């Protein structure tokens, strides 16, 4: 261990490509190392990403990097750390980028508050929306804490996209599988389940899943599916919930980002909108440990007499209709009660027939009531014109009888 430390210390202060003074190694992996450097001509502090000669970057790989850099150089977004310069030194391609002295978000593991989590979601989803909607579209494919940096003002910046990511994918096919290169635990841990399928295609939803897993780790200090990532989810594991000190909305958002079905994960634009709204209205972010919603007593439902038969096993009261039936001197058909399921079903069927009978009876009753109401409106039980006609008819009949006899 001491030999390794002394090796990197001896590498410091080395002049790279005759221009950059190596100050400190910031990190790296099987493909590259990242250094804090100082431009000896300007004195500006920068970050240098140097691709190792052993990464099998041949002339075709270098040409591809030049092409990708030409596409990246015009990208401008507040949440994207874009490369400033590309060159090759001693068969080692390298990128020059701005230096973020606060480093990556890896140091915030299990220290991130809910507010900061929403800021992280807002900033990175905004960067992804920008990349995903470009022509041609750019898919990051390697979102993880090491690739999200913190700017001086606290803004979160997405890095290691475009050139380095495409180079990693291109060289992977030419490299023998090595746990320390592409198959490192830190990379697989942020891979969605569909990355382990036969159709391992780069899609926008992959970036969303990786972002959800990253935020989950920052909040809990644990990876959602351990070091095996979406492979565990593919085998049937459920997306875990956040601790209950976080809000329902944040928990639901993270779970939707890591949905096993890529089609159900939100687009970057939707995720950006949700996070922005949450930051505008923090008062709506109720922790899952608190249940502030008042209990609403359900209004009593009007049960049908069939339900009463099944639940109470007694002849139900049908409301106002039976009372009207009694006033007319009619009896309701009685319904036998039984404990057997089949008999109860027969009772329900029988009840449907009785119910239809009652409706017909009610209609007849209403018609009679309508006639009575018309009579009441006339002011007499016998219309006046009927009385006059009867008297006139009697007089005429009397005159006729007198003439005949």
How would you sum up this structure, described in words?
44% of the residues lie in helices and 11% in strands. The chain has helices spanning 2-11, 59-72, 114-132, 163-172, 185-188, 204-220, 230-234, 248-257, 268-280, 305-312, 320-327, 341-378, 384-404; strands spanning 15-16, 20-28, 32-39, 45-51, 85-89, 92-98, 148-150, 156-158. By secondary structure, the protein is an alpha+beta fold. The chain contains 13 helices and eight strands. The protein folds into two domains: 12-284, Transferase(Phosphotransferase), domain 1; 308-380. The protein is elongated, with a radius of gyration of 41 Å. Mean pLDDT is 76; it is low at 171-186 and 315-380. The longest helix has 38 residues, at 341-378. The strands form two sheets. A six-stranded antiparallel sheet has the order 1-2-3-4-6-5. A two-stranded antiparallel ribbon has the order 7-8.
**Estimated share of beta-strand residues:** 5-15%
Overall mean confidence score, pLDDT: 76
Quick one: how many beta strands? 8
According to CATH, the homologous superfamily of the largest domain is: Transferase(Phosphotransferase) domain 1
Termini separation (Å)?
150 Å
The 3D shape can be described as elongated
User: Regions with pLDDT < 50 over 5+ consecutive residues?
Assistant: 171-186, 315-380
What's the alpha carbon Rg, rounded to whole Å?
41 Å
| Number of helices, counting only DSSP H or I runs of 4 residues or more | 13
Structural class: alpha+beta
Please tell me the CATH architecture of the largest domain by its name: Orthogonal Bundle
The share of residues in helices is 40-55%
The main β sheet shows up as: 6 strands, antiparallel
Major sheet strand order: 1-2-3-4-6-5
Number of domains: 2
**CATH fold-level label of the largest domain:** Transferase(Phosphotransferase), domain 1
So what's the CATH class of the largest domain? Mainly Alpha
Could you give the order of the helices and strands?
A: HEEEEHEEHEEHHHHHHHHHH
